[in-house]
Amino acid sequence: AQQTLAPGAALLRGFAREAGAELLAALDGVLAAAPLRHLVTPGGHTMSVATSNCGPLGWVSDRRGYRYTREDPLAGQPWPPMPGSWRELAARAAAEVGFDGFVPDACLINQYLPGSKLSLHQDKDENDFSAPIVSVSLGLPAVFLFGTPERSDRPQRYRLQHGDVVVWGGPARLAFHGVAALADGHHVLLGRRRINLTFRCAA
Ligand code: MD3
Ligand code: FE
Asked: Starting from the edge strand earliest in sequence, which strands make up the sheet with 177-179, in order?
């Protein structure tokens, strides 16, 4: 079942549910190589969400700005490889809504603990806005805020649950979006946290 949130934004409810445990089996290895960290924004705020990356490119932020890098600045090493099961799931989801041949070169991993949130923002550090972004929600549910390319438009709210996948392309690609403070809870596979994977074509 596919729900259209806006032109270009397709919610695939439960698309990653069956693969969820397999996706999570690869998570610990990725995070052992590139640990989660709280990035600092150019404005000097420390993000409440903890992040890491895998794949050829990874998204980072510091006082100098936002950018994609080939190395994890913590390790001074390339980001760990993107697990095949992750890349294949993202490609299947993209193809489901008409984006054939989606080959992401970056996967951003966001971890939310109770109280973590992500303020309204646009994703525009990628070179090619014609490629979609695929997001996979795992663990605790979150309230996702989905606006328009105009910051002042009031966002719509959607509850994203374990296994939900969203494909953001076309006119939705530059929409403002964010995540409300995570409510406490317990998830059988992830405990008191939410993990979000976003697959991008950054180069
Ligand atoms: C809509 N992550 O990492 S995923 C991010 O749940 C980010 O961790 C959120 O926003 C999270 O940048 C939301 C959904 C998402 C991701 C990218 C988008 C929605 C998007 C890009 C354009 C429009
Ligand atoms: Fe984003």
From this structure: 118-121, 177-179, 142-146, 156-160
What residue's CA is closest to ligand 1, atom 13?
A: 178
Structure tokens at 85: 């099961």
**CATH number where 129 lies:** 2.60.120.590
ipTM rounded to 2 decimals? 0.96
> With 0-12 CB in 10 A as exposed, 13-18 as middle and 19+ as buried, what is 136?
buried
Q: Give me ligand 1 centre to Cα 129, in Å.
A: 14
Residue type, 135: S
Q: Is residue 121 classed as helix, strand or coil in its secondary structure?
A: strand
**Rounded to the nearest 10 degrees, how much is the dihedral formed by the CA atoms of 29, 31, 33, 35?**
-160
pLDDT digits (tens, 9 = 90+) for 102-129: 999 999 999 999 999 999 999 999 998 9
Q: How many domains does the chain have?
A: 1
| Any atom of ligand 1 within 6 Å of the Cβ of 172 | yes
Rounded Cα gap, residues 57 and 40, in angstroms: 19
Whether the predicted pLDDT of 71 surpasses 90 = yes
Structural domain containing residue 161 = 2-200
| Ligand 1 mutation pick, 198, 199, 200, 201, max ligand atoms within 8 A of CB | 198
What amino acid is encoded at 53 in this protein?
N
